[in-house]
Specification:
Blueprint: H1 5-8, E1 9-14, E2 17-23, E3 34-37, H2 40-48, H3 55-72, H4 76-86, H5 91-109, H6 114-150, E4 156-160, H7 175-184, E5 188-194, H8 201-212, E6 217-220, H9 225-230, E7 236-239, E8 243-245, E9 250-253, H10 256-265, E10 270-273, E11 279-280, H11 297-300, E12 327-330, E13 337-340, E14 343-345, H12 350-359
The chain binds 5-S-methyl-1-O-phosphono-5-thio-D-ribulose (MRU).
């Protein structure tokens, strides 16, 4: 059974006041535990530890966070700043925050008091949540049509990295939603799931989603991917994105770029699936994308998965310095296609991307 969107993230009017209730992704797959955020600082902590994560969901969480501050009567601008700064790479976070702030300000501009303005921010967050669910359905449709075109015949073996399913979206997600569609149509022979070091979003979350959906999958360590390509066991790579620059460069979970290089060498399609809210035409190229650097302890210890956990099983000498970028950048010439809810860009060019965004229904922020 798939994951219900309201279990992943929902607004709840609890007896003690409103809250954003999240499925704590740091505890999966061992425990399904809800995290109740009653104010923005709590939500910011949840974002930083990756209890809530993945670009589209970060956008939705950011929008609800602004609404939460507004409903509580907190300083909306300060809350928006805290939320936007909590993680730097996924552009959706800032997009969601700015949409809710825009709705709040527009309401104030029309003479609304704080209560009505807060309602406007909440309505905007709900709208973004719905739009993201609808975008998932459309991306899956376009993605499946593209697979049809690129991979004639049944029995696809698809490789994915990180987690891009219902856990990162108001709906079915991005890349994993395409793979799930292929499974439901009987076309998925196997989903290869990269474990995704260091925080194991593939092993913990994608495997969890794949199992719940009855998908045939196998886990592999990230560095096993090369031998899999060499053996001809990968028909296409499907990944998501955290930010797509104007030239088509793709920031996604660290380890995506090496997969793109492998895919190019082995003539395997490398497909990025992301809503247009992930496209950032204001960032000119990949070099201009800020890549989040995370604590080295995530690499040297094996317990940093649990929110707030300190210390644990050492995987390196105590105090070992570590390099831990959360994302890497894949240049556009390594990307076969970008699939969005508004259509497919292939080959990936800045012009193609700009045209698609101009046609798409992305809401302009006032
Ligand atoms: O650090 P995370 O877990 O938030 O990283 C998530 C990813 O890199 C996803 O692949 C990306 O956000 C796309 S999700 C549709």
């Amino acid at each position: 059974m798939g994951i219900e969107p309201h279990a992943v993230l929902r607004w709840d009017d609890l007896p003690d006041g409103p809250a954003l209730v999240l499925l704590d992704q740091t505890r999966l797959p061992a425990e399904e535990v809800e995290l109740v955020c009653t104010d923005v600082p709590a939500l910011v902590r949840a974002i930083r530890v990756l209890a809530v994560r993945g670009a589209p969901l970060l956008g939705i969480a950011g929008a609800y966070g602004v609404a939460l501050a507004a409903v509580r009567g907190d300083d909306v601008v300060e809350a928006a700043g805290l939320l936007e700064r909590s993680r730097p790479t996924a552009v959706n976070l800032g997009y969601g925050v700015r949409r809710a702030v825009g709705a709040y300000r527009a309401a104030v501009g029309k003479g609304a008091g704080p209560e009505r303005a807060a309602e406007a921010a909440l309505a905007e967050a709900r709208a973004l949540h719905r739009e993201d669910a609808e975008a998932s359905v459309r991306m899956a449709r376009y993605g499946l049509a593209l697979l049809d075109e690129l991979l004639p015949g049944p029995g696809h073996q698809l490789l994915t990295h990180c987690n891009t399913g219902a856990l990162v979206s108001g709906g079915g997600g991005t890349a994993l939603a395409v793979a799930l569609g292929a499974h439901r149509e009987g076309r998925l022979r196997r989903l290869w799931v990269d474990e995704t070091r260091p925080l194991l979003q593939g092993a913990r979350l994608t495997a969890y989603e794949a199992a719940r959906n009855g998908m045939p999958y196998s886990l592999l360590t990230d560095n096993a991917a090369g031998s899999l390509f060499a053996a001809g066991e990968v028909d296409a790579v499907l990944i998501g994105a955290d930010r797509i620059a104007a030239d088509g460069s793709v920031a996604n979970k660290v380890g995506s770029y090496p997969l793109a290089v492998l895919a190019k060498y082995h003539h395997v399609p490398f497909i990025v699936v992301a809503p247009t809210t992930t496209v950032d035409l204001d960032t000119v190229d990949g070099a201009s994308i800020t890549v989040e650097q995370r604590p080295g302890s995530e690499v040297t210890e094996f317990t940093s998965l649990r929110a707030g956990a300190a210390g644990g099983l050492l995987g390196a000498p105590a105090g070992a310095p570590a390099y831990n970028p959360a994302f890497d950048i894949t240049p556009p010439d390594l990307v076969t296609a970008i699939v969005t809810e508004g259509g497919v860009v292939s080959p990936v060019t800045g012009v193609g991307l700009a045209e698609l965004c101009a046609r798409s229904s992305q809401v302009t922020i006032s």
